[in-house]
Design goal:
The complex is a heterodimer of chains A (112) and B (112). By secondary structure, chain A is an all-beta fold. Chain A is built from no helices and 11 strands. Chain B has 112 residues and is mainly β. In chain B, strand 4 and strand 5 form a beta hairpin. The termini of chain B are far apart. The chains are: A mainly beta (112), B mainly beta (112).
Amino acid sequence: KNQVEQSPQSLIILEGKNCTLQCNYTVSPFSNLRWYKQDTGRGPVSLTIMTFSENTKSNGRYTATLDADTKQSSLHITASQLSDSASYICVSLDTGGFKTIFGAGTRLFVKA
Amino acid sequence: NAGVTQTPKFQVLKTGQSMTLQCAQDMNHNSMYWYRQDPGMGLRLIYYSASEGTTDKGEVPNGYNVSRLNKREFSLRLESAAPSQTSVYFCASSAGLTDTQYFGPGTRLTVL
């Protein structure tokens, strides 16, 4: 069964610290993997998108990595800010885009 | 440039009532989607439209119907609402099925 599992479920960090969120996926055949940020009460916003041939992709303080062999991805946030408090959602897409599987998300709380 | 807009933002229905959720995008995207998001779960695809004139079922289509009115607009209809349809509904659009999806602000629906 195609799945996307994220860990941890929630995370609390102090402002200025770094953190890494994990994503394991089993979607096959795999096309690409995306990370979205969802602020409370808003729709998700795309952070990064990576195909199976890409190992890393950055967007400002956000860096996503992908290991297509182990089917794992991570999202690293550098020098966290209060505005980083949100849910981070990992999404895997099969070839053709017909099976888009969303993870349940990691809820990140950044404290001052 | 509003992106993806959804109406209404909030709605309360009684069991058995019907309603239509409206979605419009101004990015000239070909593909549009309807998702529902429930607590502790990832977004689940209800229906999608790969291009104007086509619609297809997603993961959880039962109890819903859709209409791709034109390239800009994609509506979701609940014919006879049930409490299990209490959720937050998101519309999204993308240039193509494998491209980045852009989400609307969501509609929070409660069925009593």
